[in-house]
Structures are given as structure tokens and as C-alpha cells.
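Onboarding guide, step 5: your first structure request.
Type a short instruction followed by the sequence, for example:

Predict the 3D structure of this protein.
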Amino acid sequence: MEILSDELLLDAYQAAMQFNLEPEFIQLLAAEIKRRQISPDNFRRITA
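The system replies with C-alpha cells like these:
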């Protein structure tokens, strides 16, 4: 996960949500977003 830039991580999360991928994978991405303390505004932008 550390290889991904913040932008790519957010893109991966958005795509995982869009394509309804495995909930465990989505949770893994969400946990990494939280771990990196990515701005909630950016997080909210992709989940809206």
C-alpha cells in the first residue's frame, strides 16, 4: 500500500466502490486512507 500515492489510493477506493468489489478490500483501502490521515474533504469527495 505504501507504494501508492494518495491520489492513486483514493482512485482505487473510488473504483472499488463503483464496481462493488469485495467489502474486505474496500475496508482495507479505507483503513489505509485513515492511516495516512488523508483529508476528510478528499475522502468525502469520492464517497459522495
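Each response can be followed by summary notes, for example: DSSP finds three helices and no strands in the chain.
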